[in-house]
Amino acid sequence: MKQYWLMKTEPDAYSIDDLKRDRTEHWDGIRNYQARNFMMKDMKPGDEILFYHSSCKVPGVVGLARVCKEAYPDFTAWNPDSKYYDPKSTPEKPRWYMVDVEFVKKFPEVISLNQIRQTPTLEGMKLLQKGNRLSIMPLNKHEFQTICKLAQA
């Protein structure tokens, strides 16, 4: 069964335009156990993603992506030169995982966090819950479709 996700990234680190250029990319550097578990246990190829820019002038959903490869060990954790290095993670006993995502569509306009907050049918969305800072979070089909409608995607 297809699932829906919101994945956050800072646009100066990796943006929707970067994904559009690259077409597919591994989603590395997740160092939160709950977000890792979503990738390891729940994300499957074909799952739909709302691509969200955070820590920027207008945070919000900027496009669509899709999971194209199931979770596999995040090799950046093994590289001492990587900002995602974790000496407790090894190839024999990986601690962190990643999935591959593919570009689907860039929205003509950002669906801003404020716009999402002002949409009554989205009030229960995990993104809007106080203290939720996860970079990956599940969505229900209604939330996904509502944001796509706002974007006229």
Order of strands across the widest beta sheet? 2-5-4-3-1-6
Count of alpha and pi helical runs: 4
Main β-sheet: number of strands, strand sense, barrel status?
6 strands, mixed
Order of helices and strands: EHEHEEEHEH
Helix content: 10-25%
Number of domains: 1
Question: In CATH's first tier, which class applies?
Answer: Alpha Beta
CATH superfamily: ph1033 like domains
User: What is the arithmetic mean of pLDDT?
Assistant: 96
Low-confidence blocks of residues: none
Structural class: alpha+beta
Radius of gyration: 15 Å
Strand tally is 6
Kindly report the CATH topology. Answer: ph1033 like fold
Please provide a written account of the structure:
InterPro entries: 5hmC_binding (IPR052181), EVE_domain (IPR002740), PUA-like_sf (IPR015947), THYN1-like_EVE (IPR047197). Pfam families: EVE. Keywords: Phosphoprotein. This is EVE domain-containing protein. Residues 3-150 form the EVE domain. With 153 residues, this protein is of the alpha+beta class. The chain has one domain (4-143): Roll (ph1033 like fold), CATH 3.10.590.10. It is 22% helix and 32% strand. It has 4 helices and 6 strands. Strands 2-5-4-3-1-6 form a 6-stranded mixed sheet. Strand 3 (48-53) and strand 4 form a beta hairpin. The two termini are 22 Å apart. The model has no long low-confidence stretch (mean pLDDT 96).
